[in-house]
């Protein structure tokens, strides 16, 4: 049986909840979320999820969930 994106997400749900709590425990001002962005990039790289930083903007980030469906 092929593992679906939902199956993969369910497996890491506790880790994702802990990560969300970490992000919310260290708030940053709007448009100044540089530490938050660094943490998100590290997590995306850990999971092998492709992303790109939007050009012309200091802290915009775009990632694709399609990579989780493979």
Automatic annotation (TrEMBL):
SUPFAM superfamilies (UniProt xref): Zn-dependent exopeptidases
Listed Gene3D superfamilies: Zn peptidases
Record's protein name: Hippurate hydrolase
Organism in which the protein naturally occurs: Pisciglobus halotolerans
């Amino acid at each position: 049986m092929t593992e679906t994106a939902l199956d993969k997400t369910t497996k890491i749900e506790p880790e994702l909840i802990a990560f969300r709590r970490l992000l919310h425990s260290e708030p940053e001002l709007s448009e100044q979320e540089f530490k938050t962005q660094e943490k998100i990039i590290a997590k995306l790289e850990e999971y092998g999820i492709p992303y790109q930083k939007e050009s012309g903007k200091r802290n915009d980030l775009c990632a694709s969930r399609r990579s989780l469906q493979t």
